[in-house]
Amino acid sequence: MSQSESFDAAVIGGGPAGTSAAIMLARAGKRVVLFERARFPRFQIGESLLPACWELWRRLGVTEKIEAEGFTVKQGANFGMFNQKPDVLLLTAEYPGYFERPYTYHVERARFDEILLEHAAECGVEVRREWSVADVLFDGKRAIGVSAGKNGTDPAPIHASVVIDASGRESLIARKLNWRRPLPELNKIAHFAHFKGGFRRDPHGFINFGEVMDGSVTTDIHTIDGGWVWYIPLRDNITSVGAVLDTRFAKSLGDSPQQRFETAIQSCECVREWLADAEQAMDIKTISSIGYMNERFHGDGFLLVGDASMFVDPVFSAGVTLAMRSGVFAADAVLDGFANGGDFSAARFSRYEARIREPMGRIFQMIYNWYRILEQKDANNIILRSRQSPMLRERFIVLLSGGYDKVSMQQILEAADEPESTYLIS
């Protein structure tokens, strides 16, 4: 293979962030190469999506393919907190005007990510599956390409006007430049697995607002000592169940991930009952040191997207939405650079970072406050109080449906009549 290959953009990673960036650029006529190390389809966590995805899918031209797949319809989220009844059921359909559609999906990421990768290839992206990127090439401070090759072969230089790092938690560029910053307040560990079976509510007896879609579900989130549990119904009678725990507390639950997971689930009455007749369908998987934020998301000739820029705690299902947003917005920034004489400087790309950080900060504020509520076992918290306050409820639903550019944490506090210092994290 020639060592003089050159592209308009090189994308490292074929998850939702990387494919979103690559698709946008290819649809604009740019020559794009995307490297994906893994063999697809492959298992990935992050199965609960948000209604804000519809706008992104429309821009990517992939809506019809996702609709045709028949994923499980998600109409909202249900929070069970400190055994306070009733649970807090938040349905996007209560305030449908904020989003293109008042529902979204629970997806098997193996299939969802494959749809996006296949769509990228159909849009003209040169998708190189089972290729590894060994390094990002720099000329001084400017990224000029990558060193990459088929898995198991020696890498070769491939040049690109722009490098988009979508390498996930590996954060290839951030680690190279020592930009990785842990978030001690989010020092959590997640244990999770799929189950065959598991209780399904009849949506017609549970979902109490808007059109009730046959077979639709909610993402369930329930607090336990030391953390919380998720319960995500998928297709084919499969249920994703996970426990997110404070790292220090988790050690008290057992010596192995399986023991810790089982102890956590047994402490959650409703999930324990829902899984009474279910069978664990896979070994427990673990993600540790959940929270991090890279110092910067851009530089001369490069952009960081998705988990390569930061990792979002899964409690509000923001990960895939933020990843796809960052990919789409990164492509916008690159196209702006092409439109301005090939200016891919850090100064021009700073607009991308500003566009990402402000709305991203809003969901991080909510995540920090979630753990403050759990730590204090606050039975009068603003989530529970949203049952009685229409304004607070509306703003929560918009934020937790992915409307990070539509509602701020300050507006939520105003609706809750809470002092700013109680919830805002500097």
Structure, explained:
The protein is 34% helix and 27% strand. The C terminus is likely disordered. The chain has two domains: 199 residues, FAD/NAD(P)-binding domain (3-Layer(bba) Sandwich); 135 residues, D-Amino Acid Oxidase, Chain A, domain 2 (2-Layer Sandwich), CATH 3.30.9.100. α2 packs across α9. The protein has 14 helices and 20 strands. Strands 3, 4, 5, 11, 12, 13, 14, 15 and 16 form a nine-stranded mixed beta sheet that branches. Strands 1, 2, 6, 7, 8, 9, 18 and 19 form an eight-stranded mixed beta sheet that branches. β18 and β19 form a beta hairpin. The protein is α+β, with helices and mostly antiparallel strands and 426 residues long.
- Average of per-residue pLDDT values: 93
Report the CATH architecture of the largest domain: 3-Layer(bba) Sandwich
The fourth-level CATH homologous superfamily of the largest domain is FAD/NAD(P)-binding domain
CATH topology value of the largest domain: FAD/NAD(P)-binding domain
**Count of beta strands:** 20
Strand-residue fraction?
25-35%
Oligomer kind: single chain
Residue ranges: pLDDT <50 for 5 or more in a row? 421-426
Largest sheet: 9 strands, mixed
How many domain regions? 2
**Radius of gyration (Å):** 21 Å
Highest CATH level, the class of the largest domain: Alpha Beta
SSE class: alpha+beta
Overall geometric form: globular
Measured distance between first and last alpha carbons: 51 Å
Please give the count of helices.
Answer: 14
How helix-rich are the residues, as a percent range? Answer: 25-40%
